[in-house]
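Bit of a strange request maybe. I'm writing a small parser for structure token strings and I need a real example to test against, not something I typed by hand. Could someone generate the tokens for this chain?
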Amino acid sequence: MTPERKEESMTQVKEWSNPELNRKLAELMGYTIKKLGSEDFAFAPDYCTDPAASLEVQARALDFDCREYIRNLTIRTLGDEAKDIAFDTTLYSVKYLGLKRLLLATPRERAEAAYITLSSKQ
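Reply from user aminoacidic:
Good idea to test on real output. This should exercise your parser:
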């Protein structure tokens, strides 16, 4: 994914509603999306608000591309502060406060970072 497309993707994900992000993550996690009236519906976890479900999608994203997921989660949680972090080296370039913030990420932040990571290779 080009840097321009990645930036566009990050901006888009932030604008999506929880149901919209949940639907897109459900597809990436292998759930079938059904049409019920005018609504898309999946019997899938709520990745945006359920801490256990957000950890499930986080685990998938970490297995898929650990470095990219940590990078995306850092950007989701630290915002502009993340610009000072050298992502091309190692995880150790993230300062302790940044690590603390990553560990305290909300389910929504984990869901956004997981979507960006899992969709990056499609």
